[in-house]
Sequence to fold (170 residues):
Amino acid sequence: MSKEDTTVRQEAVQNPESYRLTVLRPGGNDTCLIAGIIDDAATRKRVNDAVMESYPTVEQVGFVDLDPASPKLMMAGGEFCGNATRSTAWLALGGQPGELLVQVSGVSKLLRAGVTAKKEAFAEMPIYGDPKKIMEDPDIPGNYIVEMEGITQYIDFRPLNPAVSREEVK
Fold:
């Protein structure tokens, strides 16, 4: 961790209302990344709650160390987040094309992430090789529960209810 990240981390732990952050929109939903990894889950939650209150469009909060030699991402809830991983790579590479390995919460191995020549951020998904990790929802046949390392995805193939907007679904 860089000296600057250590200072920011100490400041955030002591005063969760005072920290350096950036809000990105990598996949249509706002992701907030805060400089400095905070190990304490209770402190991450306090900072997360303060951010969510101040920035109501933010859907997830992560804490980052942007050292390009060993970038790290710790989500507020300790889960994996693909959009935050892509955003971490983008910031660590300064938006320039390249590839790196990112240590991400909820995942046991380093994940490959980076920026393409077309300036598109990408990230490896921590997918299990076991097809048993994909299960049909017993309550709603045709929909699926997909277990991944650090997160579970729900795939809903039902048509969107016309009374509900796409923004409400997010």
Observations:
- The two ends are 34 Å apart (CA to CA).
- The chain has a mean pLDDT of 86.
- The first helix runs from residue 3 to 14.
- Residues 131-169 form one domain.
